[in-house]
């Protein structure tokens, strides 16, 4: 039986994000603990003569048109590198908010590469797949195999993080898009500038309690600049922090999505209910991270 050509494109959460400096090419060197949520978009591939993309779902209207969608960009980059690549029509069920700091577009693009690799019997470790991912965007490589990783460089250096306990969380987005370049600009580093700060804590083999301690001493360096670009993020952090049982509230990526961590799924479900009651227009999801 052939495997169905469908895959989940989970939300990517930056549990930590330390900016180490700005490179000569303008990109920033990062150190980030990335985990993946139980919630996400879904992508299906119907093999056919040409590449095409159909987008449906609650946030489809915000996903950009065919020309600038990262799914097609990734697929084209792979087709340029693999002669005779079998392709088809990609169907994206878009549920995640866009320009939200949870890697929706990057995860969709990585999902497209997974499906095309599967259709063509190419391993994900193949240099053409890796290169297509890297050229699509800084966050695409980490999304290729969605498992917890320490991400370094601009996102291309990936190390597995073993023994990360399952985390119960709430994701909250105020439905205000945030442009990543604007947040990095607001950080205000010069090209070539290197930051010296406290080292990123090790995350390997942490128990749930010690992981939380380590996460607390780490940070998201983009949180402050993102809050200046989009002040509502402060309000989101405050609201999540105020929910019962919240152990840590922090922005993911360049925002505006904020995650709250809880001790169990009852606490996260209750917190989600409360936030939905207080801000009915916001996107609120109780989920788990791994
Ligand atoms: O690679 P991607 O197109 O997703 O990056 C979007 C923008 O975010 C870049 O143009 C750059 O301004 C900024 N960025 C950065 N350093 C990174 C990742 C992204 O400066 N490590």
UniProtKB/TrEMBL annotation:
<dbReference type="Pfam" id="PF00288">
    <property type="entry name" value="GHMP_kinases_N"/>
</dbReference>
<feature type="active site">
    <location>
        <position position="12"/>
    </location>
</feature>
<comment type="function">
    <text>Catalyzes the phosphorylation of the position 2 hydroxy group of 4-diphosphocytidyl-2C-methyl-D-erythritol.</text>
</comment>
<dbReference type="InterPro" id="IPR004424">
    <property type="entry name" value="IspE"/>
</dbReference>
<comment type="similarity">
    <text>Belongs to the GHMP kinase family. IspE subfamily.</text>
</comment>
<feature type="domain" description="GHMP kinase N-terminal">
    <location>
        <begin position="69"/>
        <end position="144"/>
    </location>
</feature>
<dbReference type="GO" id="GO:0016114">
    <property type="term" value="P:terpenoid biosynthetic process"/>
</dbReference>
<keyword id="KW-0418">Kinase</keyword>
<dbReference type="GO" id="GO:0019288">
    <property type="term" value="P:isopentenyl diphosphate biosynthetic process, methylerythritol 4-phosphate pathway"/>
</dbReference>
<dbReference type="InterPro" id="IPR013750">
    <property type="entry name" value="GHMP_kinase_C_dom"/>
</dbReference>
<dbReference type="InterPro" id="IPR014721">
    <property type="entry name" value="Ribsml_uS5_D2-typ_fold_subgr"/>
</dbReference>
<keyword id="KW-0808">Transferase</keyword>
<feature type="domain" description="GHMP kinase C-terminal">
    <location>
        <begin position="222"/>
        <end position="277"/>
    </location>
</feature>
<feature type="active site">
    <location>
        <position position="139"/>
    </location>
</feature>
<dbReference type="Pfam" id="PF08544">
    <property type="entry name" value="GHMP_kinases_C"/>
</dbReference>
<keyword id="KW-0414">Isoprene biosynthesis</keyword>
<dbReference type="GO" id="GO:0050515">
    <property type="term" value="F:4-(cytidine 5'-diphospho)-2-C-methyl-D-erythritol kinase activity"/>
</dbReference>
<dbReference type="InterPro" id="IPR020568">
    <property type="entry name" value="Ribosomal_Su5_D2-typ_SF"/>
</dbReference>
<dbReference type="InterPro" id="IPR036554">
    <property type="entry name" value="GHMP_kinase_C_sf"/>
</dbReference>
<dbReference type="GO" id="GO:0005524">
    <property type="term" value="F:ATP binding"/>
</dbReference>
<dbReference type="InterPro" id="IPR006204">
    <property type="entry name" value="GHMP_kinase_N_dom"/>
</dbReference>
<feature type="binding site">
    <location>
        <begin position="97"/>
        <end position="107"/>
    </location>
    <ligand>
        <name>ATP</name>
    </ligand>
</feature>
<keyword id="KW-0547">Nucleotide-binding</keyword>
<keyword id="KW-0067">ATP-binding</keyword>
<protein>
    <recommendedName>
        <fullName>4-diphosphocytidyl-2-C-methyl-D-erythritol kinase</fullName>
        <ecNumber>2.7.1.148</ecNumber>
    </recommendedName>
</protein>
<comment type="pathway">
    <text>Isoprenoid biosynthesis; isopentenyl diphosphate biosynthesis via DXP pathway; isopentenyl diphosphate from 1-deoxy-D-xylulose 5-phosphate: step 3/6.</text>
</comment>
